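Hi U.,

Before I forget, here's the chain from the pilot set. I'm dumping it here mostly so it's searchable later in email.
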Amino acid sequence: MSVISIEGMEFFAYHGCFKEEAIIGTKFRIDLFLEADTGKAEESDDLHDTVNYQKVYEHVKEEMQSRSKLLEHVGRRILERIKKEFPSVERARIKIRKLNPPLGGKMDFVALELEL
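Structure:
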């Protein structure tokens, strides 16, 4: 079993409960950890035998473009899509950071970690 990670993906999106967040948006940073059996790819050296990072990124990007009020909802959508598109993924974990959240004070980010 291997863990494939794609870390530091950045997106500009409009997720949040506040009306202003739907208008001005903010940056998000995502780390994704996918547990999969990569044994076949280790032997074959064939991209079709493993999880294609580029396709994973494209799926995450598409889900980030679909607005949600809660990070929990975005995270669940992303993980479910990845597991559906890549059946070899047995477990998936995501960390979503909302950078500079509008909470009335200075902070770097708020974050959610979710696992399926």
